């Protein structure tokens, strides 16, 4: 296996992980920001108030994006299997 092939495979794997994680993390970050602004405006310092909405949004993002994420993983796996001759030879 040439170094270029390994770097290409590693780069595409890192990009896939970045896209899949950001699809779940960004909605949670947005809700966390909104809740923290609400807490700052009302002077409520309850830690559990910020946890539950972020948990629900994260689970919702996973539920909505699971089909898309698994589709991307399957496409990447097919790409890897298709590159086996190039990696070996």
Automatic annotation (TrEMBL):
Single GO cellular component term: plasma membrane
Membrane-protein topology: Multi-pass membrane protein
Annotated transmembrane regions: 12-39, 51-70
Alphabetically ordered keywords of this record: Bacterial flagellum, Cell membrane, Cell projection, Cilium, Flagellum, Membrane, Transmembrane, Transmembrane helix
Pfam families per UniProt: Bac_export_3 (PF01313)
Example GO BP: protein secretion
Localization terms from the record: Cell membrane; Bacterial flagellum basal body
Free-text function comment from the UniProt entry: Role in flagellar biosynthesis.
Family statement: Belongs to the FliQ/MopD/SpaQ family.
Identification of the protein by name: Flagellar biosynthetic protein FliQ
Species of provenance: Oceanimonas doudoroffii
Source species taxonomy: Bacteria, Pseudomonadati, Pseudomonadota, Gammaproteobacteria, Aeromonadales
